Prior knowledge:
It is a single chain. By secondary structure, this protein is mostly beta strands. The chain contains no helices and 6 strands. Strands 1-2-3-6-5-4 form a 6-stranded antiparallel β-barrel. Strand 1 (4-8) and strand 2 form a beta hairpin.
Amino acid sequence: MQLRCELWSPFQDFDTLHGVTVNMSRFGVVFAPDEGLEDRLLPQVGHAARVVLHLPRPAQEMARCVECLGRVVRLDAQESLRRIALEFRRCQFTAYPPARESA
């Protein structure tokens, strides 16, 4: 299942990225950022990161998401295809949009 998500740095090490999940487990996620990454500050291996996974919602229900704190463990770039792998340290279900606080 592909989920819309956003990725940002709690320490402003890289720009906020929007995209979709490619692969996910309870331990981490592989994230595919949307196009248009030129002139963007991108995450590097070891950077702390927060990712918000937008959950599908039934009609008439409040938007919910899973917010995870983790770190970047792998970067893959082939031509125009880019993937960012994150390892989760902590996850929580929350209302969307989540609070953006420091880690």
